[in-house]
Write a structure and sequence with these properties.
This protein is of the alpha/beta class. Helix content is 20%, strand content 21%. It starts with 10 loop residues before the first strand and ends in a 5-residue tail after the last strand.
Length: 211
């Protein structure tokens, strides 16, 4: 029987990158990405605190395959901070693709954190850039608000949700991923690897029926 949560003022819902470019027809569409929107809207109505991240890339972002002549999207390259997947151009600042999905109910969001705006480094996690050391400041924000438990949902399970969950644990929060309110890219088995690592690290995988 699944656990049922009684939400308190120390709980926060973290909505990851529910943006047009990650939904059907977008530049980097996650399969069934938009299917999470109704579930997330229901969660937003229940949580005492909610915040969201937004990929926010300059046009010449170094994670774009277009910036690496001869390289293809979804291939790998080496960056100063390690291996980097090369992506199609997506979530460009101020463009339609970077906007939240139009059906996402954003009025209750207390913070929108934009990430990936430094051209030289990608940022999957809501907490750190991909060098694993440059902070976004989210930890301090949550600590100041006395948040203890972080519940994650959004896109994509195996990249930005996964990295955010692992970093939230690293920063001392109790972490839950609401699995049915996420969708994955699943690049060469990346979903299974992410789920396995999250479980082994102490992230709890739950569903939206737990509330």
């Amino acid at each position: 029987m699944s656990k049922t949560f009684s939400l308190t003022d120390s709980d926060a819902l973290l909505v990851i990158d529910v943006q047009n470019d990650f939904c059907s027809g977008g530049a980097l569409a996650v399969p069934e990405g938009e299917a999470v929107v109704p579930l997330i809207n229901g969660l937003l109505r229940k949580f005492p605190h909610s915040l969201a991240t937004q990929d926010w890339h300059p046009r010449q972002h170094k994670s774009f395959a277009s910036q690496h002549p001869g390289k293809d999207a979804f291939g790998l390259t080496e960056m100063p901070y390690g291996p980097q997947v090369l992506w199609p151009d997506h979530c460009i600042q101020g463009q339609k693709g970077s906007a939240f999905h139009p059906d996402l109910e954003t009025n209750s969001l207390e913070l929108v954190l934009r990430k990936g705006f430094r051209a030289e480094i990608d940022s999957y996690s809501a907490f750190f850039e991909n060098d694993r050391t440059t902070s976004t400041g989210l930890t301090g924000y949550l600590q100041q608000r006395k948040i203890k438990r972080v519940f994650l949902c959004g896109l994509a399970t195996d990249f930005c949700v996964y990295y955010s969950a692992i970093d939230a644990l690293r920063e001392g929060f109790e972490v839950y991923v609401i699995e049915d309110a996420c969708r994955a890219i699943d690049l060469e088995g990346s979903l299974d690897k992410a789920l396995k690592h999250m479980r082994e690290s102490g992230v709890s995988l739950i569903t939206s029926t737990s509330f």
